[in-house]
Amino acid sequence: MKVEACYFSGFRIHPGHGKKIIKNDSKQYWIINKKIEKHFWDKKNPRKVPWTMVFRKIHKKGLAEDTKRKRTRKQQKVTRAIVGASIEMITKKRSMKPEQRKSAREAALRKAKEERKKAQSSKVKTTGGPKKDTRQKVQKGGKGR
To answer: What CA–CA distance (Å, rounded) separates 55 from 39?
Structure first.
């Protein structure tokens, strides 16, 4: 039992009811009754005829009881451990006061600078002096080939 939809009005057409109109270009239209057929042949716009389903949909008539809005769940925030830090460490850093965070950052920067200086000083001792350029000089192609 297939229920068709009226081309013009959008009403349901049950088996044994309505009329199927086939035009010369092989397009098929289901029409429910003579009133709608008259509108169809007069080429009325179903969007401008107040009792059609298309008009009702456009003008938001009677949709409130048909469709209820789906409730969406709010996402809950979950803190997870990252590769370099455990959950306890993350919560501890998050709960730190701005002054503590600033002082810890400055201390870490100082430590990094000292390590960089040590690395620089050890590099200077190992290298004897500037290296001589041993690459072959090749002239680029241009006017003086």
So the answer is: 14
| Partners of residue 19 on adjacent β-strands | 31
Nearest-angstrom CA–CA distance, 20 and 31: 6
- Which residues, given as ranges, of the chain have pLDDT below 50? none
Q: Using alpha carbons only, give the angle 78, 80, 82 rounded to the nearest 5 degrees.
A: 150
Q: Where are the beta strands (DSSP E) in the chain?
A: 4-5, 12-13, 19-22, 28-31
38-45 contacts at long range (C-beta below 8 A, 24 or more positions apart): 39/8, 40/7, 40/8, 44/8
Give the pLDDT score at 4. 95
Strand, helix or coil at 35? Answer: helix
CA–chain centroid gap for 98, Å, is 35
Integer Cα distance of 7 and 45 in angstroms:
11
Q: What is the DSSP letter of 16?
A: T
Q: How many residues does the chain have?
A: 145
| DSSP H or E run through 111 | helix 98-126
List of residues 6+ apart from 66 with CB closer than 8 A? none
